Amino acid sequence: MKYSIHNTREEAESELQSLDSHFNLPNNKAKSYSTIEEVEGVFRFRVKENGEWKADDIASNVSEVEVSAELPE
Amino acid sequence: MTTINTCTSSTRPGSPSTGDTLFETDTESLITYDGSAWKSYGADDGNYNLDGTNVTSVRPLCHFDAEFFNGVDTSGNPANDSSVGASNLWKSRVGSSYLFQETASKQPLYKSSGTNSKPYVLADGGDILVMSESFVLEGEFSLFGIAEADSNNFMCFFGGGGLNQGTYLPTHSNIWCGYGRSYLYFGQGGTSNIALPLTINGGETRAHLCTRDSSSNTRYWLDGDNSTAGQATNTATRIISTVLGVSDMQYAAQGNAYEFMLFNSDLSNADRNALGAYAVAKYGSGNLSFTNY
């Protein structure tokens, strides 16, 4: 999955606000674009790679993050 | 005594007037035309007619079926590739509950045609849908789901409170069931109580049934009766509040979800087999096989 990754929460919030503005959120299809999470010292939020909310091509600092799809026994 | 006229889901009046009410025999529901659409009201108990042929003797608490996205018929199915969760609410065929998601990046997509040309909801590993009402499971339960694995091969059906969250439910209520690349899982209380080795390959559409019986034994069955069904014992009350993942976004699903059903009882073999016959008839015997109990 792809995330927009930032060094500070303020940077992440600013980028997320710009996406909210791009998609004219909130509206009747969503109230916000994504949610910020702090992981290993960076602040990131997920961006969609397809559909009407696709943003991996317009958001800044987008990187692929490997998310484990398998659980232990 | 007033006798209400009858119809079936395929013979509803073509030009109804507001207030017209009939008893629909195949779904065993009262239907009323509200001026723009038919509203369906099923009984609180008794039989549940799955498809006009296959019937369970008990009604589920909820049944989210992508083919009947508005909970009644196909007229409310979203367009292909529409996002699900805000303007498109996935409504249960039973009761009044619905699934929603107000955050854009967590909304799955509606797909018009999948296995046997049936619609489904595509989850990409970061999506989750929240139930409009939570269901408390104090004893027996049965969780039934139909899903098609993608190449990443991970799918959570029902979920409850997460391991480290406090948004929706306390941690002790967490529950989830689903499959990974090579295991079936049933987890509750923060651990995987069932981790049953069983490979599911990408593109396979399978019928999942997770049950807790009167002796608090929980089992996970795949495609009907099989000798390798996992088993765990846990008596704790659990709360179901999400599908496609757990409420703190753990175990988020990747794959195609066709339908979910939740019963607050263990099911008889006859009822389990009715679910299987329904699934095979709907998704095609060439796509989904089921071994009767």
Question: Can you lay out the helices and strands and say which pair or pack?
Answer:
The complex is a heterodimer of chains A (73) and B (293).
Chain A: E1 2-6, H1 9-22, E2 36-39, E3 42-47, E4 62-64
Antiparallel strand pairs in A: 1-3, 1-4, 2-3
Chain B: E1 6-7, E2 21-24, E3 29-33, E4 38-42, E5 48-49, E6 55-56, E7 62-65, E8 82-83, E9 90-91, E10 98-100, E11 109-111, E12 120-124, E13 129-137, E14 141-159, E15 175-179, E16 183-188, E17 191-197, E18 205-212, E19 217-222, E20 230-233, E21 238-243, E22 254-263, H1 269-283
Parallel strand pairs in B: 1-2
Antiparallel strand pairs in B: 2-3, 3-4, 5-6, 7-22, 8-11, 9-10, 10-13, 11-12, 12-22, 13-21, 14-15, 14-18, 14-21, 14-22, 15-16, 16-17, 18-19, 19-20
Name a few traits of the molecule.
heterodimer, A: 73 residues, alpha+beta, 4-stranded antiparallel β-sheet, 19% helix, 25% strand, globular, B: 293 residues, mainly beta, Jelly Rolls, 22 strands, 41% strand
CATH class division of the largest domain in chain B: Mainly Beta
Main pleated sheet of chain A: 4 strands, antiparallel
Q: Are there runs of chain B of 5+ residues with pLDDT below 50, and where?
A: 162-172
| Rg of chain B (CA only) | 18 Å
Detailed description of the structure:
With 73 residues, chain A is of the alpha+beta class. Chain A has one domain. In chain A, 19% of the residues lie in helices and 25% in strands. Chain A is built from one helix and four strands; from the N terminus they run βαβββ. A four-stranded antiparallel sheet of chain A has the order 2-3-1-4, with helices on one face. In chain A, a hairpin with a 2-residue loop joins β2 and β3. The two termini of chain A are 24 Å apart. With 293 residues, chain B is mostly beta strands. Chain B has two domains: 42 residues; 239 residues, Sandwich (Jelly Rolls). Chain B is 5% helix and 41% strand. Chain B has one helix and 22 strands. Chain B has a 16-stranded antiparallel sheet that branches. In chain B, strands 1-2-3-4 form a four-stranded mixed sheet, with no helix packed on it. A two-stranded antiparallel sheet of chain B has the order 5-6. In chain B, 51% of the residues are buried. About 4% of the residues of chain B have low confidence. The chains are: A alpha+beta (73), B mainly beta (293). Chains A and B meet through β3 of A and β8, β14 and β17 of B.
